[in-house]
Amino acid sequence: xxxxxxxxxxxxxxxxxxxxxxxxxxxxxxxxxxxxxxxxxxxxxxxxxxxxxxxxxxxxxxxxxxxxxxxxxxxxxxxxxxxxxxxxxxxxxxxxxxxxxxxxxxxxxxxxxxxxxxxxxxxxxxxxxxxxxxxxxxxxxxxxxxxxxxxxxxxxxxxxxxxxxxxxxxxxxxxxxxxxxxxxxxxxxxxxxxxxxxxxxxxxxxxxxxxxxxxxxxxxxxxxxxxxxxxxxxxxxxxxxxxxxxxxxxxxxxxxxxxxxxxxxxxxxxxxxxxxxxxxxxxxxxxxxxxxxxxxxxxxxxxxxxxxxxxxxxxxxxxxxxxxxxxxxxxxxxxxxxxxxxxxxxxxxxxxxxxxxxxxxxxxxxxxxxxxxxxxxxxxxxxxxxxxxxxxxxxx
Length: 396
Description:
Blueprint: H1 3-16, H2 22-37, E1 41-47, E2 54-61, H3 69-87, H4 92-102, E3 107-114, E4 117-125, H5 131-195, H6 201-227, E5 236-239, H7 241-251, H8 253-258, E6 262-269, E7 272-275, H9 276-292, E8 299-306, E9 311-318, H10 352-362, E10 366-371, E11 377-384, E12 392-395
Parallel strand pairs: 6-8
Antiparallel strand pairs: 1-2, 1-4, 3-4, 5-7, 6-12, 8-9, 9-11, 10-11
Helix pairs in contact: 1-2, 2-5, 5-6, 6-10, 7-9, 9-10
């Protein structure tokens, strides 16, 4: 193997390890190997993961050889033999043994493996009778890298399909759950109007609130599941976050009174550009989190501002029990329930903060927290903004 060819092989293998789908891999390998070993024709064949049909069949011919009927017939015959082997459920050992028996002199045919199963083959043909012996070492080197890449691509494909199936399942059950929940909410709201002032009002009010919470939780879980296999889709618009935050705070009025929480705010009166629906989810989850883990008679402080890098920043500080250092890495994990409370007064679903991280990152922003055990926590997020000048502060 000369130095020039070694360099070409290195470049080939480097490029091969960047390819992310099977079709592109088939085209690249067929043409690339043809050039590296100076073969006249190549065939790259890959079966579906179930092994019951051909997913990819790629031919390649040396320039000027595509119209050579004898050569075309030869590579097509090799292709047919290989496909017949793969589609007739032969054992691996039998397939490998047969491929080895026809891989000699003017033909090289190598099996492609996935999970120790023969999933395809690469075939090369040349009129020189020493072709197999001359090029066998190079082809074996290429096949080792090719099999590794096939495994990575196939595993990624399986993961994506699994995630999509998971989302489809969650979407299906969320629909099944949302329909009765909406009915419960609707009828309970009707009963609330009739039972206003009655001793039974608090019971129907609790049914309504619990149903609404469960409905929002179902949507959060569905959003998180979707985000695992494709980026969160955002619809940007311009709005004043101060007004949005105030409305959300008011929606927690009853729990604020119940726990005697004291709120204080310093909010920048400015327009920002973001996805309004997702922004509301961020604020709702962070305020809900601060209230949930706060003490009776505690404090919550909210501050918003534009920083020196023109990021819109939201900070919320609570006077709760804080977070243990060993739990720091779990805070934004999906379905991770961190005990922020010695007495276990509240338990979270482990969805809200994880979804906040997804939303902030989708806006090309950031999210984080600082906390000390028994000294409360401060959560914050930032969303990049441009042209935010002439702002004013409004204190409450």
